[in-house]
Amino acid sequence: MDWQTTADTVPSSFITEAQVHTLGKPPVTGAWREGDPVGERLFASIGALAVESGDELPSVRIAYESWGTLSPAKDNAILVLHALTGDSHVTGAHGPGHTNSGWWSAIVGPGKAIDTDRWFVVAPNVLGGCQGTTGPASLAPDGAEWAARFPYVTIRDQVAAQIAFSDAIGIDRWAAVVGGSMGGMHVLEWAIMAPERLERIAVLAAPPVTTADQIALNTVQMEAIRTDPAFRHGDFYDELEGPTRGLALARRMALLNYRSPTELNERFHREWQSDISPLGAGGRFAVESYLDFHGNKFTRRFDANSYITLTESMNSHDIGRGRGGVAAALERITARALVLGVGSDRYFPYSGQAEIAAGLRTGIRQGEPYRIESEYGHDAFLIESDLVGEAITELLAA
Ligand SMILES: N[C@@H](CCO)C(=O)O
After folding, report:
1. pLDDT digits (tens, 9 = 90+) for 241-265
2. Contacts of 159 (CB under 8 A, 6+ apart)
3. Homologous superfamily (CATH) for 17-209+318-397
4. What is the ipTM metric for this complex?
5. Which residues does the UniProt record annotate as the domain AB hydrolase-1 (predicted)?
6. Any idea what DSSP says for residue 126?
7. What is the pTM of this model?
8. CA 181 / ligand 1 centre spacing (Å)
9. Is 379 assigned a ligand-binding role in the annotation?
């Protein structure tokens, strides 16, 4: 299909406040119980949350899904944390409330690397996100969306929310906390902020600190959104048209970080998308069409304010901040650890995972990351299921 770049007026399908209560069970505050629905969106209230900036969110709700059964000893629970644009829908088909099928369906499920016949798997949507957890599209106490008023939230604030969420659903200790990319940042903070509450960690394609280069790559994406006139300083929820052009452009830029030059070159070459030449006749190269397609598709499921909030969170990431540096922070980690990197990752390069693995005392590969050779670049942690599954199996057996 020859997708065009248009200002898309199709309403986005991120979850608005009004939709929350029709898409899931009412908020729960008690522990998970045998017989609770699994693989279906649930909500937990964690109350007020003070964030590092000094602001306070008066009421925070966490959307989550779970699969498998919690053992009577509560010793088989695994927390899975998603990347920037993922959500709680880790595994399973798309359907009502889920525009995409599960982003790790090949890893999580019966008989898979994270075997839901054995493990009780829980996946929350991140604080600041747009799939049911409190974020910029949620209502502030004055009854209007938070929008640009949503506080600056750090990776540590998001983990503080996840810890409170663990309390709310009655999990004292996780058998493993697993995540890739931004989810891997959360995993590292979990292991430092609450070492007594987890046994194992898997940090996939994530850095110990977001570097100047990575901040720069992220910052231009935020600027693409902000310069869209339809952004209106974040106050676009009541408008017919949101900042879809800016958001789609941000997504195009992001995809370039997520894939490798080899993959794009070998997949698209210099092919044209249609019979119309891109050499001055108005046609497009196939790779342009691919980026347009993903940019447009993304605007149907993601909130531009959330994109900015979460990108700012990633920019805040530095496990060494206030802890005497990265090496000192890594020394605090006591969980058995899998660190996985992708050789072709140009977003969070392998060198970052090598630094993490070298600084850990508890890595399962004695100072070395598990290295994946793949043409897919950063996204390999989502696509190379056999290799990622193998590494996670090794961790869970450790
Ligand atoms: N494809 C992933 C990569 C970010 O780590 C996402 O969109 O979230």
Report:
1. 999 999 999 999 999 999 999 999 9
2. 186, 189, 190, 193, 194
3. Alpha/Beta hydrolase fold, catalytic domain (3.40.50.1820)
4. 0.92
5. 76-382
6. P
7. 0.92
8. 7
9. yes
